[in-house]
Amino acid sequence: MAARVDLYDGAYANYGSGVYREVRIETYGEDFGQTSWVTTEESRDIPRMLDLESSSSVLEIGCGSGGYALHLAESVGCQLVGLDVNGPGVRNANQLAAARGLASRARFEQCDASKKLAFDDNTFDGVFSNDVLCHLPGRGKVLCEMFRVLKQGGRMLFSDALVVGGMLSHEEIATRSSIGYYVYSPPRENEKLIEQAGFCQIAVTDTTESAARISERWQQAREKRKEELVAVEGNHNFEGLQRFLSCVRCLTAERRLLRYLYLANKGA
Ligand SMILES: C[S@@+](CC[C@H](N)C(=O)[O-])C[C@H]1O[C@@H](n2cnc3c(N)ncnc32)[C@H](O)[C@@H]1O
Question: Per the confidence metrics, is the pTM higher than 0.85?
Fold first, then answer.
């Protein structure tokens, strides 16, 4: 088995460090504090896909550093709640919100999003989750919770980079899973579970190619800064993350793992 490697603690605790910022800019083009496969084009399209306006209230599941949620709160003017299980991520997000004068519009809470969400029914106009549901057990229940907290007519969006598209060896699965708990989905399982949760008008976009591009850029941006990153992460973790990123690039480039974006509505 591949040894356990840390991605999220280091990325969020070192959010403000110059070298981590340089890596994000070189990987994504724009820095939203990402630790995912979301391209800048996808980030820019999310407000349109979710039909957000300044009066909207939005929930982000797995907000990480909070950088993207705060970008939405600032650019759209909406109210936003971000949830993440990672302590350094949530701390960073609340500190950024205060520093940017956005604490009245955006707040962040640490919680395990695979459990019942602490919100009333019909609370949010939009619920989204970028590359997070693959980390949560019980996808069907999670989708039911997303449906429950969404208002009638609201929209839901999530991405899943772990749809199985071909043959995978046990070493590849171990390396791809080295940063944490993961659930791999068979093709069309998400569509079935989204429908079972009660959603309609499901649109599915294949974004596998952009995941291959992001993982390659991320791996190369880190390799160029190896010395500085090893000084922070240690050699073992640096090499483990490089192997993880190479594995993502290979599996997505060969379409043996696929990334899809799912957009759906709660009622009309
Ligand atoms: C691939 S990162 C995506 C972060 C962010 N959405 C982005 O686009 O950069 C996955 C995130 O899911 C969070 N996560 C993992 N398990 C979780 C859980 N059980 N509940 C809430 N968040 C979780 C991680 O801490 C991490 O921030």
Answer: yes
